[in-house]
Amino acid sequence: MRLVSRLLSSACVLTLAAVLGCSSGSPSGVTGANMGSAGSGIAGSGGAAGGDSVAALVCQPDLRPTSPLSLLTRVQYDATIADLLGDTSQPSQTFPPENQVEGFNNNTEVHIANPLLVEQFMDAAEGIAGRAVAANLTTLAPCAGTSVAEQTACGASFVTAFGKRAFRRPLLTDEALAFNTLFAGMVASRGYSVAVELTIEAMLQSPQFLYRVDAARAATPETGAVILDPYQMASRLSYFLTGTMPDDALFAAADAAQLASADEIEMQARRLLETPKARSMVRDFNEQWLRLDQLAGLARNPPDATTDVKDIGADYEESLQQFLDHVYWDKGDLSSLFLSPDMYVNARLAGVFGVDAPASGFAQVSTAPGQVGLLTQPALMAMLAHSDQSGPVQRGVFVREQILCIPVPPPPPNFNPVAPDPDPSLTTRERFKVHTVSPACSGCHQLIDGTGFGFENYDQLGRYRTQENGLPVDASGEMIGTGETALDGTFNGAAELSQRIAVSPRAQNCLATNWFRYAMGRVETPADSCSVLDVQKKFVTSGGQFKELLVALTLTDAFRYRPAVPEDM
Amino acid sequence: MRVRKNPDLTRRNFLRAAGGAAVALPLLSSLRAGAAAETFPKRLVLMYTPNGVIPDSWWPTNATSETAFDLNTIHAPLAAFKDRLLFLSGVDLTITSSGPGGLHQKGIGGLFTGQQLQSGDLFVDGCGQTAGWANGISVDQQVAKTLAVGTPITSLELGVRATENDVQGRIAYAGPGAPLPPMNNPSDVFTRLFSGFGQNSDEVAELQARRRSVLDTVQSQFKSISARVSTEDQQKLNAHVSLVRDLESRMAATSNGSAACVAPAVPAALDPTSEDDMPTIAALHLDMLATAFACDLTRVASFQISTSLNHIRYPWLNSLGEGHALSHEGPSDPDAHMELVTRQTWHAQMLANFLTRLSQIPEGSGTVLDNTLVLWGNEVSQGDTHSHLNMPFLMAGGGWYFRTGRYVQYQSASHNDLLVSVLNAMGDNATTFGQADTCHGPLANLV
Description:
The structure holds 2 protein chains of 2 kinds. The relative contact order of chain A is 0.17. Chain A is 51% helix and 5% strand. A two-stranded antiparallel sheet of chain A has the order 1-2. By secondary structure, chain A is mainly α. Chain B has 2 domains: 1-28 and 198-259, no CATH class; 40-197 and 263-438, Alkaline Phosphatase, subunit A (3-Layer(aba) Sandwich). In chain B, a hairpin with a 5-residue loop joins strand 3 (123-124) and strand 4. Chain B starts with a helix and ends in a 22-residue tail after the last helix. The chains are: A mainly alpha, B alpha/beta. At the A-B interface, helix 1, helix 2, helix 5, helix 7 and helix 8 of A face strand 3, strand 7, helix 5, helix 6 and helix 7 of B.
């Protein structure tokens, strides 16, 4: 008894939203009027292809994209410290986690300072500076002089050189003055190494380090857009494509006043995409897009007495990340994302999945039954499940929201959901039928469950099954109201659904939109429509090549321009 | 924050020399030297547990008067503190009868702020409803504005697997749209509170001097950048630099701790995302919080067990249902009912353990518990209805102000009024808190 209503109520009160909220609305009404309204800035930005029910994205060139201050995330902080000082201790481990919007933790609207974080910035800066001076003083801030005057002069050189790398641009006169003053005072009272240490501490707590400052006052129709200066562009490129500060080549390009033309930007973008750090960045994106943070602490009841699945979430995540590495860097296109049948296992997962264990680490398994592509990956199937059951509702919501950018329609105001208490003597799918046979539930749940039922071949650990409780699994499903004729309709199993999604313009545009959110650190606004459309178009034209998508993002107006400041006029 | 704790160590050295007498000893600052020895600071703790309660097992039974009642199953662990408890029935989250957001979202956002959520589409709940953050300061932070002046740490936010980093995971707010993240890892809490114990006063003074120089320079950089960015970005930078200033100002803080101010052992490495580690983490958090009070490192705290809409299991209680879903069916399903009562009884046990710990820390002629108020709340009254009526509010302690040991029954009172009463208990004479139109002044019949 309990189990059934628990499953029913699992995705908040999706069920119950349906009970009272969706009974009056037809599917087409739902996908039309509400499309894009929940959590996204542009109606229909997930995909404007085909279908009258989906609002089309319209380029509005008169609107100026914003360019807000962007606080480093923990991942960016650690990578930057590693590049700046060779300190790979990942000092941000104790920082509070970023607030999230749409799964992204680099959202400039909610990733903002709080007391604990500011305190941690200080503690981290002290630790980093102390280690840097203890280990590397002579290379970091060489100085032959011994007098206060000579060492103060060395300090000025250090401030200029280190400051440029820490702030990712040459220091302004007043900035250099402030740090030189600090340095001089400390040399006189406490000596050279302390002066270097405290200068580092101060720089690492300054806004020029902690934030990416490339914007200025908010755009108005009167103040136009201004192209980023070379150093700002270098930071944009490096943080987007490599998740860290600019490398030497980017600094050199900025020093040479390059990075203003599309050709120069494209050349740098293509170069950066060949570096190992680009791979880390893609992992960071995928973690956020797919909300893999849910895998930490994954708790699934073991399938039998001998299989240990305690704290196995990290193994699942690495398995999925290796699959995504393979798709992005060995295959390179969207079709492969949804249709590469590879699975990656370590010894532990091999035990769960009943395949041969690799000698060490992870290994590819190309013949695992039921593996179709991203959507059937063990990590996703296990994440989108209950502790003891598969999760048709979670899977349906995931495919529609994350993969196709179709938001769940909201219920009407003031509904007070009461969970039904249905018959317990049914299989998973049969239990969920109450959603779609009840007229009250069916309005919404045929949208969600119709998608999710297609994954019934995968249990709560992501293992492929053709039988459940001795009964054959029925994995037929139906896509409704996607706005795409070729995507809508009945299907049988995850393989057929994946085939459709692999060629769906909606899925393609949805991924491009998610990449836009990651690249810009914000949800798109109407002012970004031209940029988003441009990226979507280039992605399609390239045949779904990821590298072309990422390069296209760096060439958008949203990426290259900032609103003008009065002093620009 | 290492240096801020160092005065404490120095003080403890002094205490040893003085024969262990528990006296208030301001060391680095003489400002508080005149404080009367018997005047002890008041403390406030907000406690939050999610997804509603089982009312039939929560509310006191056999009540024949305000003071004659029996504790229900869930509160059995609190029996020893019955005369310190104050049950309040008939208090509603009136604030949430309108405004954006899903019921869990606006429940948790409004619980301690008395505010609705901001409109916007930052956060989407499982039902597709959208909202922003809560639109105001929470009562603990309001209290901290006066109570925490001069303490090393303004407030301590502690979480047990509170790993949802959006509106449904936040209970404390520094202001509108400014949530405070909880610390989920005991070893981070330990480092923050106690790692500085052991430095001598010369080292402390030197570290403070260095920090002042650094932070002064840092502040000059905020000023420089602020002049060149948009108004919105200026607000962001201003908020940040004010936190830097606060950090600097608290460096001079001293603590008036008691002899019970002894740093605990370094906690073992734990996984804050693991369900299995939850009981250990809860115990460590509350133990360190009690010590932080004994050391007067802070006077304001919040403690949350998970977040609204969570799907966690409580394996150490052999309760393997998924939290939120379980809560949907509680009353109608005997098994679910029992699981939920077991979990909620465990929550009460955590509170009881904390109260016990506080009651063992001498303070003047009494204990720290005599000077502490705990307000325990939930974002919905029961999981199957998501109702915001008759919310399960329980206060513990606060005996210097409230008449405790009672079960007070109201009729459709607004919880904003309860928050005003809390402010009043903590020495803030406010007559309103949160959204004005749902606030009518302090609750009657509490003092």
